[in-house]
Specification:
Elements (H helix, E strand, L loop, with lengths): L6 H11 L3 E5 L3 H10 L4 E3 L1 H9 L9 H14 L4 E4 L7 H14 L3 E5 L18 H13 L7 E6 L1 H5 L1 H13 L4 E4 L5 H10 L4 E4 L11 H6 L4 E4 L2 H20 L12 H8 L1 H15 L1
Parallel strand pairs: 1-2, 1-8, 2-3, 3-4, 4-5, 5-6, 6-7, 7-8
Helix pairs in contact: 2-4, 4-5, 5-6, 8-9
The structure holds alpha-methylisocitric acid and magnesium ion (MG).
Length: 294
């Protein structure tokens, strides 16, 4: 096993090799297989995604560390790509945060992001967010850094401060997190390319842009973001939103028409489904096994 790189080391390498690195949200193991197959280099497990998809809950800090770890294990069990995970506010104080680092590392995550919202958190693109003090956020980052069991586990500090406190304060926080040992900064709910530029000018560590749909941030292209020094671009729920709309259409159509003929063309075929699963290689093994027994 000596040559096997840890997930964290793979993520660090992917950031070095891709300018910027695109991270796509994969709501489950199967979508992770598809993202890997089409050529993505890094995956993301969204906190909103775990809450919405796995539990039918809103993204308001109601899911536990174990809930998230279960989804991490399912995804990392199916793919080789590094997975960045949303740790929300870290589930409590320094001990809870340390436990999150350890458990997520054991579950196969490459790293996490921890944010400066209060425990009663909201989606970063919603109004009326509340944030903790700069000192408390720095403590969250220090607790994360100190708890590493794999030196390459990637610790990203997310600041939600822009909405309430403005650009200067958000950058001050980002700098304090960098000084506390954060490997990267997640600049949340940024409005303009100029603001990203201000973050990247101020910081030495990589900066992530969250390009989530129907939020505060325009859907900037990766080239525009690279142009202002952004190192990582996140698409946390893009595929999930598309899947949801497709599923709704199918449910409605079956109800309205009494069969699914009108929507079959919108479906992945059985052959396509099996292709991403390498289904036939399994079946061949099974056939070979039974053949030898005859
Ligand atoms: C990135 C995020 O934290 C997530 O949980 O995926 C969300 C995404 C969203 O709600 O669009 C966030 O930006 O808060
Ligand atoms: Mg989240």
């Amino acid at each position: 096993m000596a040559n096997v790189k840890s997930a964290g080391a793979l993520l660090r390498q992917a950031i070095k090799d891709n300018h910027p690195l695109q991270l796509v949200g994969t709501i489950n193991a199967y979508t992770a297989l598809m993202a890997e197959r089409v050529g993505h280099k890094a995956l993301y497990l969204s906190g909103a995604g775990v809450a919405n998809a796995s539990f039918g809950l809103p993204d308001l800090g109601m899911t536990s560390l174990n809930d998230v770890c279960e989804d991490i294990r399912r995804i990392t069990g199916a793919t080789e790509l590094p997975l960045l995970v949303d740790a929300d506010t870290g589930w409590g104080g320094a001990f809870n945060i340390a436990r999150a680092v350890k458990e997520m590392t054991n579950a196969g995550a490459a790293g996490f992001h921890i944010e400066d919202q209060v425990a009663q958190k909201r989606c970063g693109h919603r109004p009326n967010k509340e944030i903790v003090s700069l000192e408390e956020m720095v403590d969250r980052v220090k607790a994360s850094v100190d708890a590493r069991t794999d030196e390459n586990f990637f610790i990203m500090a997310r600041t939600d401060a822009l909405q309430q406190q403005g650009l200067e304060a958000a950058i001050e926080r980002a700098l304090a997190c960098e000084a506390a040992g954060a490997d990267a900064i997640f600049a949340e709910a940024v409005y303009t390319l100029e603001q990203y530029q201000a973050f990247t000018n101020a910081l030495k560590v990589p900066v992530l842009a969250n390009i989530t749909e129907f939020g505060q941030t325009p859907l900037f292209n990766k080239a525009e973001l690279a142009g202002v020094g952004v190192d990582m671009v996140l698409y946390p729920l893009s595929a999930f939103r598309a899947m949801n709309k497709a599923a709704l259409n199918v449910y409605e159509s079956i109800l309205a028409n009494g069969d699914q003929k009108a929507v079959v063309d919108s479906m992945q075929t059985r052959a396509e489904l099996y292709d991403f699963l390498n289904y036939h290689s399994y079946e061949q093994k099974l056939d070979a096994l039974f053949a030898t027994k005859k």
